[in-house]
User: What shape does this take?
Amino acid sequence: MAEENSKVSAEVNAAEKSSEQKSETAKAAPAKSVDLSTIFGIKAGMTRIFDEQGVQIPVTVIRLIPNYISQVKTVAKDGHDAYQVAYLEKREKLVNSPTKGHLAKAKISAKCCRFSEVKADAISEDNLGCKVSLGKFTPGTMIDVTGTSKGKGFQGVIKRFNFQGGPGAHGSHFHRTPGSIGNRTWPARVFRGKRLPGHMGDERVTVQNLKIVEVNEAKGYLLLSGSVPGAKNSIVRIAQATKA
Assistant: This one.
């Protein structure tokens, strides 16, 4: 009995050691990542930094969030080659069942709720479920940033189109109105595209040729020189510059 117990204990110890070794190797093995020309982040706000000569640089802080490849689209199946990227994690209760199933099919444990397509030069089914890396976004890289501008509501022509306006004196009856817009009997209508009061902002805006000043993956932020469209905590699309 003693010999049998010793054999059992030895087998248990060996199994525990092998499981520990497997877990250590699994932890040590880095997760596969893919370099894409586009990533998605969150605008955190603006600040300033100083270069080596002491010159201040206004920068926008982009909070880095995990991006995963949730679907591989091919010409044979979908009519075009592209990767579907999932991002913006939420609590599990806030993600619906179809989205959970879609993520589970790609073996993505994160509960993402936003999806966008990104074109790539080479498409591979092996990249399904991989994390998107920042290999193509290094300090000094020129990028284009796309976001949704702040909504201003219904605005007049002076704020919306920078009209000059009329005199400010009390005797003038022309202050901030757009002025005459009418035509004669023909064409008896207002031409399309006439600059008039209306909804301002809340549009998709792209700012081109911004420069990456700093990339800090450990702390999860990206610094861009200049301003970026959108309010704080809004989603922005960062892509390599097309006109650099």
About this structure: The chain has four helices and 13 strands. The radius of gyration is 28 Å.
